[in-house]
Amino acid sequence: ALEKYRYEQSLEHTSQFIEKLEKELEEYHEHVARFKKGKEGAT
Q1: For residue 12, what are the domain limits?
Q2: What is the DSSP code (8-state) at residue 19?
Q3: What is the 3-state secondary structure (H, E, C) of the chain?
Q4: Contacts of 4 (CB under 8 A, 6+ apart)
Q5: Cα 24 from Cα 18, distance rounded (Å)
Q6: pTM of the shown model
């Protein structure tokens, strides 16, 4: 039972970690898009 509990805990932790990564990735893409727009506007 302990192994199953541990497995479920780590699974939950992993999904939280993935959610965090996806959010950061989205923000990164937005930042890059803004940066590209800014460069195009400057030239």
Answers
A1: 1-43
A2: H
A3: CHHHHHHHHHHHHHHHHHHHHHHHHHHHHHHHHHHHHHHHHHC
A4: none
A5: 10
A6: 0.60
- pLDDT score at 14: 96
**Distance separating alpha carbons of residues 40 and 20, to the nearest angstrom:** 31
Number of domains in the chain: 1
Q: Which residues of 19-40 are buried (b: 16+ CB within 10 A; e: fewer)?
A: eeeeeeeeeeeeeeeeeeeeee
User: What six digits make up the tokens of 4?
Assistant: 């199953």
pLDDT in tens, 1-43: 889 999 999 999 999 999 999 999 999 999 999 999 998 887 6
